[in-house]
User: What shape does this take?
Amino acid sequence: MKMEHVGIMVNDMDESLAFYQNILGLELRNREWLNDTVELAFLYFPEQPSVEVELIYDGEPVGNEGIVSHLAFTVENIETELVRLKEAGVKLKDQEPRSILNNTVKIAFFYGPNGEKLELVER
Assistant: This one.
């Protein structure tokens, strides 16, 4: 029916929340402890409130659990966003955008605070 959320395991909930809110511009919808060891936080873009990023902290170091390759975000100007990310100290995989699909789309990859691979997309 629709995309619900993407779950990302994190090492430090506060650090990850700061990154996703301050660097990527998501807003916090809910943050709670499920039990003594598992904490969840749900974030969303105001322009697309029906899709969430779920941050999951379970007290264990983040490993390579799951098979999700990356999480992508649409931007209006990819070059400007890459400069902004670099100035914010974000680790970039791609220093410059790459053109794909017969030069109709630009993409660039970078990393979140837990090593998660993230992507910028300019259509």
User: Anything to note?
Assistant: The two ends are 24 Å apart (CA to CA). Helices lie at 13-23, 78-87.
